[in-house]
Amino acid sequence: MKLVPIEDVRSLPRPPIGELLDEAIKLLRTCRVTETIQLDEGYNVCLADYKRFHALKILGVRFIPASINCRERVDLSLEDLGFREDLDFNPMKVCRNHTELIKACWPTPLIRLNSLSSGSREVWAKLEYLNPFSNSIKDRIGWYMIIDALENGRILHGTRSIYEASSTNTGIALSCIGKSLNLKTRIYLPRTVQRCSDIYLRLLGSEVIRVQEQLTVEAINLVRQDSIRDNALHIDQFENDANFICHLRYTSKELDYQLKSIGLKPRRIICALGTSGHASAISFYFKNRYGDEVEVVGVQPANDETIPGMRRVETGMKWIHYVKIDHVVDVTRREAIEGLTKVSSMDGLPIGLSSGAIIAGLEKLSERDGVSVLVFPDHFYKYAEAFLNCTQL
Ligand code: PLP
Questions:
Q1: What is the pLDDT of residues 241-275, one digit of tens each?
Q2: Which residue from 127, 138, 244 has its CB within 8 A of the most atoms of ligand 1, so it is best to mutate?
Q3: Which domains, and CATH codes, for the chain?
Q4: What is the mean pLDDT of the segment spanning 30-55?
Q5: Residues 271, 302, 215, 136: is their CA dihedral positive or negative?
C-alpha cells in the first residue's frame, strides 16, 4: 500500500450525485478507510473503485491509499489521509493568485453573538461576508464551479465566456475569478435586484443583462438558450454539483473543526435557502457525522415576500432532496430587517438581509436551548437601497 497524492491519480468522470453521496455517507459515518483503491501502473483508478475514489475526492483528502493492480485491507482515518489539510492553508496570507486569496480567507471566522446568548443558550455565527470578492458565501462556489469546470474540461479553448443568472453575489464572485483566468462573464439579473448591482458588475468588467423575471432561477431557460447560441458556458449554480461539493468539502468541514476546537457540540445549524447548496451540504456532513443530534434548519421567505438571495423550497431546489432539513421556517422581509438591525446594532456586525432572516428564523423556533450556529451569507453594504425607505430604521 502507498499513499498517493490525489492530483496524481486519473479516473473516469465524477458519477451522478446520488451515487456519489451513497459512497460519501459510508466514509463520513466511520471517518475511516478500510480498503485501498486499486490503480494500474499509470495511476488510473480501476472501474470498481472509481465511485469510492470520487467520494474521497469530494471530501477533500490529500492522499488516497492505493495498491497497484490489487486491493488490500487497511485501517486509516480520513485525517491520516490529509482530510484536515484544506483548513491549514497559507497562514501568512501571502497570495500569488485568486485561488490563494480566497483560501487565505478560510476558515471564515466563527464568532459568539452576545446579544442572543444567555444561560443555557449559546449562539455562534459563521461570517461568510469575510470572503474576499463578493463578500459573501458565493465566493466559495464561484471559485469552485470554475475550477471544477476547468478540471473536467467544461471550459475548453473555444469557450472563453461564462453566463450565469445571479441575484448579485455569485455574479460578483464569477466576475472576479473569471477575470483572473481571462474568462469573460455575462450576468443576468432579475428585476427585483437592487440597481447598484449593475454598477458593481460592470466595474468588474462583466456584461449585465436585466431580465423581467422576479427570481433568479426563473431566468435559467433564457441563460441556457443564450449560452448554447454563443458557445458560452452556463455555469448554473442551481444544478451544478460543484456548488454542493464545495460546501461539503470546505464550509461544512471548517465549521466542524472550528466547533471542535472550542469543545462545542451544535444542537442546531440555521441556514438561508437559495439554491440550497450550503444548507444541504451542511446537513449531509453533520447528520452523517453526528446523526440527528444536530438539527438543520432552513429559512425561506414567507409567501409573496422577497429577501435577496433566498427563495422558497417549492420553487425547486436540487440537493435538498438528498438530505434531511428538520425545520423550514418562513420569514418576512420586515422580520429579516428587524433581525439584521438587532445584531448590527447590538453585536456590531454589519450583516445582510438573509442573515437577518436567519436571526428571525432562530427566534421563531420553539426550542432554542443549547448551541445554535448561524451561517451569515453576506453583509449589509449591498442593500443600502433596501433601507432608504425603511420606516423601521
Ligand atoms: N443569502 C444570500 C445573500 C445569497 O446570495 C444566497 C444565495 O444566492 C443565499 C443566502 C442562499 O445560499 P444558497 O444558494 O447556498 O442556498
A1: 999 999 999 999 999 999 999 999 999 999 999 99
A2: 138
A3: 2-85 (3.90.1530.10), 98-133+241-387 (3.40.50.1100), 138-234 (3.40.50.1100)
A4: 97
A5: negative
